[in-house]
Each structure stands twice: as C-alpha cells, then as structure tokens.
UniProtKB/TrEMBL annotation:
GO terms for molecular function: cysteine desulfurase activity; transaminase activity. PANTHER family: CYSTEINE DESULFURASE, CYSTEINE DESULFURASE 1, CHLOROPLASTIC. It catalyses: (sulfur carrier)-H + L-cysteine = (sulfur carrier)-SH + L-alanine. SUPFAM superfamilies: PLP-dependent transferases (SSF53383). Pfam families: Aminotran_5 (PF00266). It comes from the Bacteria. This is Aminotransferase class V-fold PLP-dependent enzyme. It comes from Streptomyces actinomycinicus.
Amino acid sequence: EVADWQREVREQFPIITAHPELAYLDSAATSQKPKAVLDAVHAYLTTSNANAGRGTYPWANRTTELVERTRRRVKEFLGDPHPERSSVHFTGGTTEGLRTVARDWLAPCLTDGDEVLVPFADHRANLDPWLEAQGLLADRGIRVHVRALPYQDGSGDYDHRAFDRVVGPRTRFVAATHVHHVYGADMNVHRIREAVGPDVPICLDAAQSIGHLPVHVGKSALDVDFVVFSGHKALALPGTGVVWARNARGPAFRPGGWQGTPNTVGIASLEAALDWLDAVGTARIAGWTSALTTRLTEGLRRLTAYEIAGCRSSLAADSSVPAAQRRHGIVTFRHRDIPSDDLGFILFSHGFMVRADSLCQAGADEKTDGSVRVSLHVYNTVEEIDRLLTVLTSLG
Ligand code: PMP
C-alpha cells in the first residue's frame, strides 16, 4: 500500500525525517521544504546574492537572470499556452497578490453600475480586497455592486445551478477559489466560466491547489485570467507569491516590470520548488493526497462523535462527481464535546500537528468554531492517517 516513490519523496524532507515521532498535518497553513529547495537557497546566497535588474557585475546579472527565468518557469508550470502575452508579477503571497489584482487592475477598470462576483465563504484574503476596491471606488462616486458567488449547502462547492441568478449583463469580474481551505473541495471553476461567458475575467485563488494538483491555464483546462498563489504553501519560502495574468494591462502587470527589490532568495526557492514539483508530478501528488483524504474522511464518518465541515449528505448524493475526487488534502471536523483547542492539545500530545484555531473563513467563523483542520501534502503517509484515526476513535 505504501508506494515506493512516496517513501523516497518523504525522505527528501529533512524536517520530516528528523522527527519520526511527529506527524505534520498543517500543510494548508504552510508546507515543509524538500532538500532541493534548501540547497537552492544555500547555493543562491553563497554564489549569487545581489540586487536584481540593475546589474553591471556577475552576481547581479545572475540574480536578474534568476528572476526572469523564474517568471518563465511559472508560466511553464501553469501550462501557459501564450507566455508571450502573459505576465508574472512577484508578490509577498496570496493575500498581497489578490490585493494587487483588486487595487491595481480591477478598480481602474470598473464604472458606475458594474457588478463583480466574489466568494463570501472562502478565505478572507479573497473577499476583503474586492470590498476594499468597492470602497475606494465609492469614495470617488462610482457605485459597484459586489454579489456573492452562490454556495451549495453542505458540499463546500459553489452552486452552479444558482449562477444564473447572479450573473447579468453588468457582470464585469469574478473572484473564485480553486481548492477551498476549510472543506478541501475542488471548486467547479469550469461552471463559472460557462455561466459568465468568455469575456468576463476570472481571478483564481490557487493558494491551496498549487503544488497539490495540476493548475493548468490552457483554454481546455482552467480558463481563468489571473492565478494567484503563495510560494510557501508550494514548498518554497515564505514571502514569495505570484500573480500570473493572462493578458492584463496596467503598471503592476507590465511584462518584466520591476517594482523595487524583489524577494530574490524567495524566488530562488520558488524556482527549485516548481522544478521539484514537476519532477515528482502534481497529478501523482494529487492522487496520493486525495487517497489519504478519502481514508481519513471515511474513517471519520464511522465515528459518530465527529462532524465533518462542508460534507453533508448532498455531496454523497451528487453521484455525478465522486466525493473523493473533489476533496484535496483538507479535512475540517469537530468533536461533539471536546473544544477545538483541547482537541488540538490532545492531538499534539500524540504527535499530531493540526490547525486548531481560526481558519480565516470569511463570514463563517461560527460555522467552523470548535473545529480542527487536518491538511496533507505529499510527505504524509497512510500510517499517519491510521494512527490519527486510532487516537480520534479513542476519544469517541
Ligand atoms: N487564500 C487561501 C485559499 C488560503 O488558504 C490562504 C492561506 N491560508 C490565503 C489565501 C492567504 O495566503 P497567504 O497567507 O500566504 O497570503
């Protein structure tokens, strides 16, 4: 059952192998880093560290080349069919990336009476920037209507059957999420494109999908206009984020544009992380983590003391999509009687590191209050899931 390739991959994470008694189950917060990434950081800092974009000597030239090469690498990683038209903008992370799209690109495009569709129950980082843009415009006398993307109760996904009610002739923009950070649901982005037609830009928050499953922007794959993600959740260093823009105009999206000193060491880590992820294969990673997710979900469903967030009957009833395929590496649940911080403490006493605090879900803290979140990456094992289920069973 334990695949050889996975054992080899796990051994490439020094922090994991150094602590066999611990199970890291908080990768949705941040990922661990493989040796290839640590080595790339060390190599960059010991051979080339300099500022980028202003080089008259080899270290500076190598740093400039690193940044430009990583822009190209991001496009390749995303399967960008037209890299000559798109741009890659480096940010500090998803939060800053979404804010950049909202403030520097979206706000100047909107006029009085326009409508935008945004998620009201995903990560707060994918709601606040759009509301802030609306506020900025309101100060200038431009009224923009922000509408909620409808959700399907209990599935964790958007409700594509209700899109007709919110999409109209003034719909100018949609912000959506690829994989939900609480439910692990693989959101149905295709249906959003179908509902809004080919001309309305879609911005995708890929914080929880990048590095976990293929994120490909070819027209037959994810037909979106912006992909925003954080390097630190995809095996690279914190403080490194990406906005990929298919064909955006505006100062922040100038191809090859320089806005101050980029996080060069973070960019070195990102290049190494993308190389590593492509070598292992994001489809293979997705297969592994969704098998673990299914094992955990099925185990939990047998335990009556636990309730899984966003996973009620309707998902099971939607036979068109097998539940297992739609969940990626994230399971949030609560115990009937044990508060989340106690449960987090008990689990850590058994070596499990989980999230047992606010999940930063917009407008829904009360729904996930008292919940803990288990989130996985390629280094997690069947044995860890089974041990976790044994402990959870003993608390029932
Ligand atoms: N969006 C989603 C879906 C997330 O899960 C997160 C991080 N939990 C963010 C945005 C924010 O990412 P960051 O903190 O790296 O900016």
